[in-house]
Design a protein that fits this description.
- There is one protein chain.
- The chain has 292 residues and is mostly helical.
- It has one domain.
- 68% of the residues lie in helices and 1% in strands.
- Strands 1-2 form a two-stranded antiparallel ribbon.
- Helix 3 runs parallel beside helix 9 and helix 8 runs antiparallel to helix 9.
- The longest helix has 30 residues.
- It is globular.
Length: 292
């Protein structure tokens, strides 16, 4: 019975579910760390990032499947510890103000100071994305190769014997996709929440959700657990943006931002994530075959 879980379409949906759950749990972990460590939270965040790096490093020499889920965990912890808390630290250090879209409208959208710091990374991270991804003609990333084909860069097939570091690749995808989704919607919100601005944001949201739906479909076409997990991470983060965006406009309560107020909800999310990760990590592998 359990073997059916590792077949199409369930194997892809399992990878999607694990990738999706990293997002609300990331918010919950951020809040729990803040509540537990108080003024020493930045030290805890630093250690969290180091743990993430250690997991990625350990995964470099692992088989594909194990390297993929270790890269995901490491990248996730690295984002929480060294990215999110770094934005908050420098926002406080330099007293960066937040911003309010349509401040004269009751309940107008409010962005935190650390969100402004995150927006300031766009030129640096975009440059790294282009150099590391777009200009890498040996990449196997479907998103990058789509542009290669249509811009006539003709990269051809990646070198067959080029050994791929799946832990590093998965961690980088986790970081860059998370960053991209954050920055995209922060800049989109600048269009405003009324009139033409609201229409632009709504159009972007509809197009984004269509894209997320397409990625979910592509997840259902996966047949290998390792590839399904890596694809599901990116697809899950994109899908999360569609789910979370209405909450920013107070259409529903973001329980993951209040883990101490809603512990049962967040414990259930954590249990689902752990269960999904266990199912991914313990995929039955036939004797003599590679872990895929």
């Amino acid at each position: 019975m359990l073997q059916r879980l590792y077949r199409k379409p369930w194997v892809g949906l399992l990878g999607l579910g694990v990738g999706f759950l990293t997002q609300p749990l990331g918010h919950a972990v951020y809040k729990v760390m803040e509540a537990v460590f108080g003024t020493r939270v930045y030290w805890a965040a630093g250690v969290t990032g180091v743990i993430g790096l250690a997991i990625i490093g350990k995964g470099l020499k692992q088989p594909e499947l194990k390297a993929s889920w270790m890269g995901m965990l490491g990248g996730w912890l690295l984002w929480i510890g060294w990215f999110e808390y770094a934005f908050k630290f420098f926002a406080e250090l330099y007293a960066v103000p937040g911003f309010v879209v349509e401040p004269d409208v009751p309940g107008g959208y409010i962005a935190t100071p650390q969100a402004n710091i995150l927006q300031a990374t766009v030129s640096i991270m975009l440059a790294l994305l282009l150099v590391y991804g777009f200009f890498n003609l040996q990449t196997r990333c479907n998103f990058m190769r789509f542009f290669h084909r249509n811009l006539r860069l003709s990269p051809g097939m990646p070198t067959p014997d080029n050994q791929r570091s799946f832990a590093r690749i998965t961690a980088m995808e986790q970081l860059f996709v998370t960053w991209f989704c954050y920055v995209f919607w922060l800049y989109a919100i600048y269009f405003g929440t009324r009139g033409v601005g609201a229409q632009v944001v709504m159009t972007l949201y509809v197009l984004w959700t269509i894209w997320a739906g397409y990625l979910v479909y592509k997840c259902t076409q996966q047949v290998r657990m390792a590839a399904a997990l890596r694809y599901g991470i990116g697809a899950g983060i994109v899908l999360w943006a569609s789910v979370e965006m209405p909450a920013h406009f107070r259409l529903y309560r973001e329980y993951w931002l209040h883990p101490l107020e809603f512990p049962l909800f967040n414990v259930i999310l954590a249990a689902l994530f752990v269960a999904g990760l266990v199912l991914v990590a313990h995929r039955p592998v036939p004797p003599g075959s590679r872990a895929t």
